[in-house]
Amino acid sequence: MALLPFSKRAPFPFYGGKSAVIDEVWQRFGSPAQYIEPFCGSAAILLGAPKPAPLEVINDGSGFIANFWRATKHQPGEVAQWADYPVSHVDLGVRHVWLMEQRESLSDRLQDPNWHGDAQIAGWWLWGQCQWIHSGWCSWTGPKLKQSRKFPFRSGPGMGIHSATPSETYKEVPESVELWTSAGRNAWAALHMLADRLERVRVFHGDWSRCVSNSFDNYSGEDTAVFLDPPYEDHEYLYGNRLPSTAKACNDWCITHANLKIALAGHLGDYTGLDDWEVFEWSRSQHSRMTGTGIEALWFSPACIEAKAKMPNIFDLAE
Ligand SMILES: C[S@@+](CC[C@H](N)C(=O)[O-])C[C@H]1O[C@@H](n2cnc3c(N)ncnc32)[C@H](O)[C@@H]1O
Predict the structure, then answer these.
(1) What is the Cα–Cα distance from 167 to 3, expressed in whole angstroms?
(2) Residue 132 three-state SS
(3) What is the mean pLDDT of the chain?
(4) Ligand 1: which atom is nearest the Cα of residue 42?
(5) Rounded distance, CA 202 to CA 57, Å?
(6) Atom 19, ligand 1: residue with shortest CA distance
(7) Which of 19, 28, 43, 119 is the most buried (most CB within 10 A)?
(8) What's the gap in Å between 316 CA and the centre of ligand 1?
(9) pLDDT 10s digits, 114-162
């Protein structure tokens, strides 16, 4: 799959990211007046929107993720400078320990919606997220780790900002800023593009239920689109989440809010009580090199726009 430009995607790989289904989702959401992504992770669906909604809210229960988006929005240059460092095995372990020690104070500071985020934590988190293999980098609720012996990603030239393909040039780096690595220069371009995209986006941190509790008073159901991508049943541990009921709570919330445009992600068979919802099946391995653990699906509420049937391709017709 061709990579989207940096203004349309996160500058880091994300386990469980949904960039492969961006078009399917926006085809059914259309142009809502407000868009809410309570489990944003890499915010693939927000960033892939053909046109930003007038009101956009993203949220993540992980303070590291919420802090990354908040700091990128307000201080992209500072975050890029903290991410400006080569791939390094020893530093990866040491920085992981340091980041894990910041959780409590970061959590307190994130409660202030006017706080602009911590650039060092965001930059180091980004730097590590792009070289860590699989899950486990900076778990928000899991136990503090001793120094990890994990090796950095080494089965390709690099991921995210460590990619060997230079990112599109966007903002010239001023003479007063010295960037050492290609990762730093990639981050500089990508984060400035993202800061512009995020200018009006509200970044929340906390349990998903907080950002869907009072959001619908001023909008009709069809004016509101919500993309729900909770940790899948039995996969909560991947995001350091010890509460196993998030997907079930989302399932219940969907049943009572079917008048909104909702897309709910999961594995086929995960949800019940959504009989009149459209179920769109997809497989991760068809769309990317990442392997999946089964057939994934999106449940679309009845308020969504009916998807246009795909035109058959000429090779299918020839068979
Ligand atoms: C499957 S991932 C989302 C991936 C995202 N859609 C993307 O495209 O990158 C689930 C996300 O939910 C977050 N999360 C887990 N439990 C949560 C909760 N109770 N409230 C809010 N966010 C939560 C995790 O930190 C993780 O980023």
Answers:
(1) 11
(2) coil
(3) 87
(4) 9
(5) 5
(6) 207
(7) 43
(8) 37
(9) 999 999 999 999 999 999 877 788 999 877 766 667 788 777 778 899 9
Nearest CA owner, ligand 1 atom 7: 17
For the sheet with 224-228, list strands across it: 202-205, 55-60, 34-37, 224-228, 261-267, 296-300, 278-282
121 is written with which tokens?
A: 């934590």
Which ligand 1 atom sits nearest the alpha carbon of residue 14?
9
Note the pLDDT tens digit of each residue in 27-56.
999 999 999 999 999 999 999 999 999 999
Ligand 1 within 6 A of CB of 44:
yes
Q: By the 8 A CB rule, do 219 and 212 touch?
A: no
Q: Which residue from 96, 55, 22 is spatially nearest to 211, judged by alpha carbons?
A: 55
Tell me the domains of the chain and their CATH numbers: 1-61+206-319 (3.40.50.150), 63-199 (no CATH)
Query: What span, in angstroms and rounded, lies between the C-alpha atoms of 131 and 149?
Result: 13
CB of 62 shorter than 6 A to ligand 1: yes
Q: Which residues contact 318 (CB under 8 A, 6 or more apart)?
A: none
Q: Whose CA is nearest to atom 22 of ligand 1?
A: 61
Which residue carries 């909008």 as its tokens?
219
d(CA 137, CA 53): 32
Q: What is the pLDDT of residues 267-278, one digit of tens each?
A: 999 999 999 999
Asked whether 17 lines ligand 1 (CB < 6 A), one says yes
Residue 135 CA to ligand 1 center (angstroms) comes to 13
State which ligand 1 atom lies nearest to the alpha carbon of 62.
25
Evaluate if pTM is beyond 0.85. yes
